[in-house]
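=== RUN LOG ===
request id: a7f3
mode: sequence -> structure
chains: 1
length: 158
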Amino acid sequence: MTDSEALHRLLDLEAIRTLKHRYVRCMTQSRWDEMATILTPDVQTAYSDGKYSFDNRDDLLGFLRGTHDVAQSHVLAYWHVTMPEINLISATQATGVWAMYHFYLDKPALQQQEMFAYYEDTYRKVGDVWLIASTGYRRVMEQTFSRRDLPSMELVAG
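=== RESULT ===
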C-alpha cells in the first residue's frame, strides 16, 4: 500500500466515524432535516431486532419525527456509540459494527429503559461523501423500570 492509499484509507475511516457520530447527535437532538443529509434515499433500517424496519429515508424520518422528537417534552433519550469496527470493502462501500448504549425516559410516567446493543451498518460513498445505506441493531441487554420505585431519584436537568 502506498502512502497515498494509506492516507485515503485513514481519511475514509475518519469520515465514517464522524458520519456515525453525526447520526447519533441527530437522533439525540431530533435534527431530522440534517439526518436526511447523511442517509441514502434507499436506506434500509431495522431497529429493535427488526421490530421497526424501513426501506427508505422518508418513511424512516416520518417514524423518527413521530416517536423520538425532543418536541415531545415527555421524552428524554440519548444514544452513545463506541468501539467501531469499520471494514472498507471498496472505494465506495464499507461496513461497520458499533457498540451502542441507549437511555430512554418517559418523564411523566417515570418509566426508564436502558439498552445495550450492536449496530450493524453499511456505508456508501456518493461523490466525495460517505452516507449511511443501512443501519440497525440487535439487543444484547434491555431493562426497564419505574423510577417511582426509587423515591430518592430526581431528574435535575433535561
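=== NOTES ===
The domain at 3-149 is CATH 3.10.450.50 (Nuclear Transport Factor 2; Chain: A,).
Residues 3-29 form the longest helix (27 residues).
=== END ===
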